[in-house]
Design goal:
5 helices; mainly alpha
Length: about 120
């Protein structure tokens, strides 16, 4: 059952991410949209694990949301590709800011979500 929850959650998360990217395409700068998606997903996964540690969550629900929905909503591969494209174009400052902002912000938000839900 967990496998089905993860697969179903993965479909939902990837469609949510794709939809947000498509909806925000007219604004330009898809790299920053991916950063915001990764930040929101990091906060959510931290909150989910904080909640899971505080109370007994069903493993099907927990893994379906954490691994399925949030794992496919956030995206390391799109982050890496966007950073690479900026580096390839010689936009070293943008690439550096994007890499540092993503890693620091997402890590901090995951921790914040965890602590928030454990409180």
């Amino acid at each position: 059952m967990i496998w089905l929850a993860v697969a179903g959650g993965g479909a939902i998360g990837s469609l949510l991410r794709y939809g947000l990217v498509v909806l925000t395409a007219p604004l330009g700068a898809p790299q920053w949209v991916i950063l915001l998606i990764n930040a929101a997903g990091s906060l959510a996964i931290g909150a989910l694990w904080g909640l899971a540690d505080r109370m007994s969550l069903d493993a099907v629900l927990r893994d379906g949301v954490a691994v399925g929905v949030l794992g496919s909503f956030t995206t390391m591969s799109a982050f890496a590709w966007d950073a690479f494209r900026w580096l390839q174009a010689g936009a070293w400052l943008q690439a550096g800011l994007y890499i540092v902002a993503t890693l620091m912000l997402c890590t901090a938000l995951a921790g914040l979500g965890y602590v928030w839900m454990r409180a």
